[in-house]
From TrEMBL:
InterPro entries: aa-tRNA-synt_IIb, aa-tRNA-synth_II, aa-tRNA-synth_II/BPL/LPL, Anticodon-bd, Anticodon-bd_dom_sf, Pro-tRNA-ligase_IIa, Pro-tRNA-ligase_IIa_arc-type, Pro-tRNA_ligase_II_C. It catalyses: tRNA(Pro) + L-proline + ATP = L-prolyl-tRNA(Pro) + AMP + diphosphate. It is an enzyme of class 6 (ligase). One of its GO terms (biological process) is prolyl-tRNA aminoacylation. Residues 59-310 form the Aminoacyl-transfer RNA synthetases class-II family profile domain. It comes from the Eukaryota. Keywords: Aminoacyl-tRNA synthetase, ATP-binding, Ligase, Nucleotide-binding, Protein biosynthesis, Signal. This is proline--tRNA ligase. The keyword Ligase applies. It comes from Eptatretus burgeri.
Amino acid sequence: MSCQCIIHCVFSHLFFLILSISLLFPRLGIEVKKEENLSEWYSQVITKSEMIEYYDVSGCYVLRPWAYSIWEVIQQFFDGEIKKLGVENCYFPMFVSQSALEKEASHIEDFAPEVAWVTHSGKTELAEPIAIRPTSETVMYPTFAKWVQSHRDLPIKLNQWCNVVRWEFKHPQPFLRTREFLWQEGHTAHATEKDAADEVLQILDIYARVYEEFLAVPVVKGKKTEKEKFAGGQYTTTVEAFVSASGRAIQAATSHHLGNNFAKMFEIMFEDPLCPKQKLYAFQNSWGLTTRSIGVLTMIHGDNQGLVLPPRVAKIQVVIIPCGVTASLPENERVALLAKCHEYQKRLVCRGVRASDDFRDNYSPGWKFNHWELKGVPIRVEVGPRDIRRQEFVAVRRDTGEKVVCREDEMEALVIDLLANIQHNLYNRAKKDLQDHMVIADTMEVFQKELDSGKIVQVPFCGEVSCEDWIKKTTARDEEVDTGAPAMGAKGLCIPFEPLRQLAPGAICISGKEPAKFYTLFGRSY
Ligand code: 87F
């Protein structure tokens, strides 16, 4: 064999050796920093934490139990709250006839490119193509019309938990922008404008509570601008969250008042109780919260070790890991150690804590620490033989990395207290982050400077669509200073219900032309 041949042979063997090692032992930890490459960090976090599995249809993803369990917590809370308001669950078909979908021509125009159609069964073309629901106004309202004759048939308050399909062409991102997603959509019809308007805000409050009390994500409540509202409705209220790692805001949930726009299209009407023979149109709302919320939580709380879960939505809140099980540890001590871990787990479960022990003996404690850290479990409890002798254990918080030594007899109280503390700490941290990144500007120069330093900005605004177009165009940048990516223009995120400052009398719109009507929050967004 020639010398060249031997070298070739050695190298190809080496290559296959390295390849098989890397296939057998994929890198465990997160390999990029959140502050250095956010999108790569995000995809590593969601896959390595076992929330998402990729799928071979672009824009569609598998939600694994670790992610789906978060959705179940949201569902349980939200479902309970809307039932208190008299909302009932139901299920309507996922298919929409062309005629129903196109009834609301005015607003469907903008959305038409995203609607997916079924055109064939097998090789046979359908007589009429059928759309897959992108939202269910046009699915439900023909039925509402059948059900409403008199004011006694109102209100109708329905909700459904389902999937919807919007065939987006922008870059997809798991949870944040997907072609199929899960949501709840509420649709209600009322006899009076006031009844409907009250409900819009009640629902918005529940959305804010989902984010603030469960996901530990602070939100800004407000009304959408004319340009950004749901075109089919009268006005849109929204909760907006902020991802400081990208300097971008994200729409967290919306609650719309539809006025009688849809009632007129679908003839949802009833006899005026005060003036028989006179027909009145119902006043309607629709509102939705999606699995995007899980992406928001990930973006906001995740760190360079991986996912960080707020305790209230964590499938496992406490993981108990036996430590110091070496070959030299006497059998009776090993048994006692595992028994103690199991006892802790049982005692916590008895108190309503979602605790789990990890007794797998083919993994080292160090490996388990990394694993559960990556998955964002709020508290890790470490128990070793020496801890048992001292009647102690060590608790490690995921949010700060802090270690707390704890007495065995105070275990339940301490852990429960620590979980509440972590929940609050995550919220307070994110709240401070939002406060530090939401500022006021009264001139375009300051507005642009703040935007380019990753902030969202409240500016005096006239509310005109043409002016909002101008702001978006003017604030767009060809190249972003540090990433080299083009920086999109600022969108109107909302007209905050509680602006940072009240508008001064005679204030002029940021564009310098018309009088300002309100402070409006602008920012780059998802
Ligand atoms: C995409 C394709 C077709 C959004 C679409 O926000 C139609 C639409 O109507 C569409 N994307 N929308 C607006 C949805 C409004 C509203 N529906 C009920 C919600 C919450 C839940």
